[in-house]
Amino acid sequence: MKKNKTSDGAGTAVTIKKPFRERLAYDLKHNWMLYLMILPVVLYYLVFKFGPMFGLSIAFMDYKPVRGFFRSTFVGQKHFKNFFTDYYFGRLLINTIRISLFDLLTFPAPILLALLLNELRSPKFAKITQNITYMPHFLSTVVICGIVVKLTASNGGITTILNSLSGVKNDSLLNHSGNFLPVYILSGLWQTLGWNSIIYLAALAGINQELYDAAKVDGANRFEQVLHVTLPGIAPTIIVMLILKMGKIFDVGYEKILLLYNPMTYDVADVINTFVYRKGLLEAQYSYSTAVGLFNSLVCFVLVMLTNKLTKKLSGMGLW
Amino acid sequence: MKSANARTATHKMRISTGEKVFNVFNVCIMLILMAIILIPIIHVVAASFSDSSLYASHEGLLFWPLNFSLSAYQAVLKNKNILTGYMNTIFIVVVGTSINLIMTLIAAYVLSRKKFMMQNVMMMLIVFSMYFNGGMIPSYLVVKGVGLNNSIWALIIPAAINTYNLIIMRTAMTAVPASLEESAMLDGANHWTILWRIMVPLVKPTIAVICLYYAVAHWNSWFSAMLYIRDRDHYPLQLILREILIQNDTTAMTAGAADDSYLLSETIQYATIVVATVPILCVYPFVQKYFVKGVMIGAVKE
């Protein structure tokens, strides 16, 4: 890339950036094949990734499929106002935040697993454990939810265990609101614990061995080593993962909830995204549900920015 | 609980009792964790091999089949919906992953050429699209607008490139020394030839990684199919699975079938799970290390 170099007064040569159009013409002439090759890719991104972004504009219209984009009436913030005053708005907000917060609570679990795996004396045993714990990640959401539904049914394995522990005969667990959250969170943990620890294991492998040696020379035992060498060593990774996770707070994965919830648990399970799905795709209220989805994305964005600023202030490190 | 002498730090250390306890504790935790992971899977497999009437009256977890029987599997293999679901999914995985690979390779190659002027701008836009997108409804409307509604291609074309995989592939390609490209050009090769004859053989491990990422994603996907496909003949396997397992809606399936397939018993449901997941679990031990490698490459990029 041609950069601007200002003369330093000693009479050295000045390089002036050629105008954009000239450089583009030059590039096109020499690299025309590259441009040709990437054409389908560009088309793909324009249509399927950026196209929907323009589609967000229907959040401000009364979109009717028959009229199309350009002839639907503009209504400004009507849909947003409707959403905020919707009977279910409070419930949706609370459910979304509650599920995400509890999900956030499981954030340290993969880190802990990585630390423990790292402390195992036998690499072979660690390998076996890793292989087994990674496995659930490859099962499809449908299979996982299917297993969960079976095991929490009235004659399911988990229900039976709970019955014998509490002495009470339970109905299918997923028919009661109080059970939804634990089932959702724990099954999520079951599926992702092993896989999520990979990133932390990779970070752990990158810690300089000399730091450990220095700590040992200073008399640190294993626990103190973890506290003063390991944790600070993987702190950047932890922070990045935390920020990314915070950004997803409002983006609660609707696929799993869609598969696990039923009308009896709507009051705790219905989140913003499942609401968007029902209103938008089942009831074809396109504009309204797009407005809700847009609200969702904006909040996610703000949260990522805030978390990034916060972590930068507290620890000097952030995502960007 | 100090460890042994600092002077003997580089030699075998005397391990304190505290540490010994911790080691045992650690191993126990790992064993419990593995058990928790495996028990549901064992239950599913055991139930699938069980006799259906015996299972219906059984409560709790199974560790071994009740009266070993293959009747569940026979029913599964006779079920037309499951077979078409399988065929559809295999089609989607094979064709979809091929398209994924071709598109991703081309995109990664062009975007890793330093002389390509638009490289930075394009990368920025592409990464931007990874974090912000139109959302469920606008994407749905776009796919419909393009005319892919109710077509199996709606599961393949809109998913042609996964940006995360693209970044991984591009990182791998930038690691290839530029001198190879230059000497090839001197020999008269153009970019197309360089990509397929030189670059691809050099990034084979990375290709393996993202090929697996794409393939598994296709195999497991169900939501897009639920959105876009109306014909039951074109349902992928996971969608059929969802009907059987979660909605327990077997009415649509029994068309024409005789005898006791009316009540899709639990054991048949379990057998369906096994049949749908067996390919992944078989392939898993061999490819697992490639997946892990992929995560590491992505992590390093972060």
Written account of the structure:
The complex is a heterodimer of chains A (320) and B (302). In chain A, 70% of the residues lie in helices and 1% in strands. Chain A is mainly α and 320 residues long. Chain A has two domains: 20-45 and 54-76, no CATH class; 81-315, MetI-like (MetI-like fold), CATH 1.10.3720.10. In chain A, strands 1-2 form a two-stranded antiparallel sheet. In chain A, helix 12 runs antiparallel to helix 16. The longest helix of chain A has 30 residues, at 286-315. Chain B is built from 13 helices and no strands. Chain B is globular and about 75 Å long.
Key structural traits:
heterodimer, A: 320 residues, mainly alpha, 2 domains, two-stranded antiparallel ribbon, 16 helices, B: 302 residues, MetI-like fold, 13 helices, 67% helix, globular
Show the helix and strand layout.
The complex is a heterodimer of chains A (320) and B (302).
Chain A: H1 20-30, H2 32-55, E1 61-62, H3 68-71, E2 73-74, H4 78-84, H5 89-105, H6 108-119, H7 123-134, H8 141-151, H9 157-166, H10 177-205, H11 209-217, H12 222-247, H13 254-260, H14 266-269, H15 272-282, H16 286-315
Antiparallel strand pairs in A: 1-2
Helix pairs in contact in A: 4-16, 6-10, 7-10, 8-13, 10-12, 11-12, 12-16, 15-16
Chain B: H1 17-48, H2 52-56, H3 71-78, H4 80-111, H5 119-131, H6 136-145, H7 163-174, H8 178-186, H9 191-202, H10 204-220, H11 223-228, H12 237-247, H13 266-301
